[in-house]
Amino acid sequence: MTRRTLGDFILLAISIGSASVVAAQQNYPTIPYKDAGGYVDTIVWVEGTVLKTENTPEGVYLVFSANEKFVRVMVPRANVDAFGGGIQHKYTGKKIKAVGKVAKYGYKLIVGVNEPKRIKIIDAGT
After folding, report:
1. Nearest CA to 48 among 7, 105, 96?
2. Which residues have CB under 8 Å from 6's CB, separation 6+?
3. Which terminus of the chain is less hemmed in, N or C, by CB atoms within 10 Å?
4. Which pLDDT value is given to residue 126?
5. Could you tell me which of 123, 61, 125, 68 has the C-alpha nearest to residue 97?
6. Number of H helices, E strands in the chain
7. Those residues with Cβ within 8 angstroms of residue 95's Cβ, 6 or more apart along the chain or in another chain
8. Per DSSP, what are the bridge partners of residue 30?
9. Within 10 A of 105 (CB to CB), how many other CB atoms are there?
């Protein structure tokens, strides 16, 4: 599949889960990022320390681990401006919680986040 297809899939996954997530963000379980594989198609708060970010044509990924089998949080390109710029500096090295539906694309796990209130910094690090 092409990158465009991956981007289309991610935007669809985000739009499907967005309405219900916004309605009751606090009522979803919080899970470690390493456990997200057991929650595919489920809305959860994913928690972990952002190791790095990756800027792609689809958007910006917040990466918790170099191991690609673990979930990544993705901010779609169309929503990056809503975060006030500097996503890379805002979240890298910080422990965060992000709420959304865990989607699986091939072997990759993604939680799409289209607005800043769906990501909370819980430890700013040192």
Report:
1. 96
2. 58, 105
3. C
4. 57
5. 123
6. 2, 8
7. 47, 48, 49, 50, 121, 122, 123, 125
8. 45
9. 13
What structural domains does the chain harbor? 3-123 (2.40.50.140)
What are the Cα distances from residue 69, in Å, to 32, 35, 51, 61, 103? 13, 10, 15, 14, 12
Distance CA 34, CA 41 (A): 16
**Cβ-proximal residues to 61 (8 Å cutoff; 6+ apart), any chain:** 53, 54, 72, 73, 74, 75
pLDDT of residue 75: 95
Residues forming beta bridges with residue 31, ordered by sequence position: 46
3-state secondary structure of 45: strand
Per-residue pLDDT of the chain (126 residues; tens, 9 = 90+): 455 555 555 555 554 444 444 445 568 999 999 999 999 999 999 999 999 999 999 999 999 999 999 999 999 999 999 998 788 889 999 999 999 999 998 889 999 999 999 999 998 875
Looking up tokens 């191991």 gives 67
Contacts of residue 108, defined as CB under 8 A and 6 or more positions apart, other chains included, come to: 68, 72
